Automatic annotation (TrEMBL):
Family: Belongs to the class-I pyridine nucleotide-disulfide oxidoreductase family.
Protein name: Dihydrolipoyl dehydrogenase
Keyword Flavoprotein: yes
Catalytic site: H451 (proton acceptor)
GO cellular component, one term: cytoplasm
Organism the protein comes from: Alloalcanivorax xenomutans
Annotated cofactor note: Binds 1 FAD per subunit.
GO molecular function: dihydrolipoyl dehydrogenase (NADH) activity; flavin adenine dinucleotide binding
Reactions the enzyme catalyzes: N(6)-[(R)-dihydrolipoyl]-L-lysyl-[protein] + NAD(+) = N(6)-[(R)-lipoyl]-L-lysyl-[protein] + NADH + H(+)
PROSITE patterns named in the record: PYRIDINE_REDOX_1
InterPro entries (UniProt xref): Class-I_Pyr_Nuc-Dis_Oxidored, FAD/NAD-bd_sf, FAD/NAD-binding_dom, FAD/NAD-linked_Rdtase_dimer_sf, Lipoamide_DH, Pyr_nuc-diS_OxRdtase, Pyr_nucl-diS_OxRdtase_dimer, Pyr_OxRdtase_I_AS
Keyword set, alphabetical order: Cytoplasm, Disulfide bond, FAD, Flavoprotein, NAD, Nucleotide-binding, Oxidoreductase, Redox-active center
PANTHER family tied to this protein: DIHYDROLIPOYL DEHYDROGENASE (PTHR22912:SF224), DISULFIDE OXIDOREDUCTASE (PTHR22912)
Subcellular localization(s) per the UniProt record: Cytoplasm
Length: 479
């Protein structure tokens, strides 16, 4: 006789483990199926994000930035450190320790909330049955009132640069270099490519980024994107736009890459090559032919606004479905689905999901870009203030970048907030709150911001939309 659950979640990443915990909190008998084995050889929760994505990359981004500061900026503060020594092995061990602490914490939360962690693979069959194949032992058939599909995504492979995790690596392999490559190539100038390129550039690599698209960060407000390009170039990232990779040939310790751009065909040799051209939904083996779940032409699972699939009682969340492939979006969908199962009317506000690139300076945004609003034809106004006018930023030596608001001129509502600069990932939350509560820009103008703080630039940018900024000179825009 097969075991029955109220809720079975397939996938233990940010969306899946959160959905399982919330369902258990709501009183449902819940199981979460996860097949991952970590680099230590043990079963692990947390998915790509905690194991080989967001968390380890941020650990290396922070470590590499500290190294860069010691090398380049400490002397500005009157601090002499002598000859620097890079112990890459210790840096990687620190990263691994953080990952183990967080993934182990999820296992403890499962115990505390009485979620059954089923270690192995799961496949949805007809009538909400789940074929569970344990890491060890025979396949079992489980039954569920509700099934949540949360299998996540995997890096996109490209035939012109096949990953071997030695010379040519994906985002996972790029976290495990045992020495700093002298020359590093990165295919893709998106979030992952820029973050990983930044890590190794700070530690001493000569980094070349090849991006097939002609526009840098096309999804980002272009005023912010252009300034970000300047900053990253100044830091040593050699970014080529409109550069389409046509082939690669590996040698024992290097790879020769050919690419074309507006100037013709080029060839470069790198010690290591990172392929970071995006991610795709991981649906292999997830659905039997009679499962009844619909996929679109790009292999995303079709869902409605509350993540219901075409099969009643079956939901899909996170990178498997439409919208940005972001851990925090998956987390909120996991909570929403558990609460929808419980009969609540929770809804994710997809118009207020922030995006962040954890470079230095950070890039963060929420809502509409100026380009999007301009295209709509609706009247709008903007306010832009640089961090160079902010006392706290100058005191910290973090004066690059700016805060920008895009505002509906008729209603005065905040439509978008865009930040390039220190702590952008934190500051952008003020824009998220503004959008969530339907704030007017006047609401932000009338608030009191602590002095000195980075957030004062948010205040000044809000004031700047109506030519009221105090600490920057403004010229009125001609109508």
């Amino acid at each position: 006789m097969s075991e029955k659950y109220d809720v079975i979640v397939i996938g233990g990443g940010p969306g899946g483990y959160v959905a399982a915990i919330r369902a258990a909190q709501l009183g449902y008998k819940t199981a979460c199926i996860e097949k991952r084995i970590n680099k230590q050889g043990d079963p692990a929760l947390g998915g790509t994000c905690l194991n080989v994505g967001c968390i380890p990359s941020k650990a290396l981004l922070d470590s590499s930035w500290k190294y860069h500061e010691a090398e380049e900026a400490f002397s500005d503060h009157g601090i002499g450190v002598g000859k620097l020594n890079l112990d890459l092995d210790t840096m990687l061990q620190r990263k691994d320790k953080i990952v183990l602490q967080l993934t182990g914490g999820i296992a403890q939360l499962f115990k505390a909330n009485k979620v059954d962690w089923l270690q192995g693979t799961g496949q949805l069959k007809a009538n909400k049955q789940v074929a569970f194949k344990p890491l060890e032992g025979d396949e079992q058939t489980l039954e569920a009132e509700n099934v949540v599909l949360a299998a996540g995504s995997v890096p996109i492979d490209i035939p012109v640069a096949e990953v071997d995790q030695q010379i040519i690596v994906d985002s996972t392999g790029a976290l495990e270099f045992t020495s700093v490559p002298k020359k590093l190539g990165v295919i893709g100038a998106g979030v992952i490519g820029l973050e990983l390129g930044s890590v190794w550039a700070r530690l001493g690599s000569q980094v070349t980024v090849l991006e097939a698209v002609d526009t840098f960060l096309p999804a980002v407000d272009q005023q912010i994107a252009k300034e970000a390009m300047k900053q990253f170039t100044k830091q040593g990232l050699d970014i080529h736009l409109g550069a389409r990779v046509t082939g690669s040939k590996k040698n024992k310790n290097s790879v020769r890459v050919t690419y074309t751009d507006g100037d013709g065909e080029h060839e470069e040799t790198f010690d290591r090559l990172i392929v970071a051209v995006g991610r795709r939904p991981y649906t292999e083996g997830l659905l039997s032919q009679d499962a009844g779940v619909t996929l679109d032409e790009r292999n995303f699972i079709y869902v409605d606004n509350q993540c219901r699939t075409d099969v009643p009682g079956v939901y899909a969340i996170g990178d498997l479905v439409r919208g940005p492939a972001l851990a925090h979006k998956a987390i909120e969908e996991g909570v929403m689905v558990a609460e929808v199962i419980a009969g609540e009317h929770t809804q994710v506000n997809y118009d207020a999901v922030p995006g962040v690139i954890y470079t230095h300076p950070e890039v963060a945004w929420v809502g509409k870009t100026e380009e999007e609003v301009k295209e709509s034809g609706e009247p709008y106004k903007t306010g832009v203030v640089p961090f160079a006018a902010n006392g706290r930023a100058l005191a910290a030596g973090e004066s690059a970048g700016m805060v920008k608001f895009v505002v509906d001129e008729k209603s005065d509502r905040v439509l978008g907030m865009h930040v390039l600069g220190p702590q952008a990932s934190e500051l952008v939350q003020q824009g998220v709150i503004s959008l969530e509560f339907g704030a007017s820009i006047e609401d932000l103008q009338l608030m009191v911001f602590g002095h000195p703080s980075l957030s004062e630039t948010v205040h000044e940018a809000a004031l700047a939309t109506d030519y009221k900024a105090i600490h920057v000179a403004q010229r009125r825009r001609k109508k």
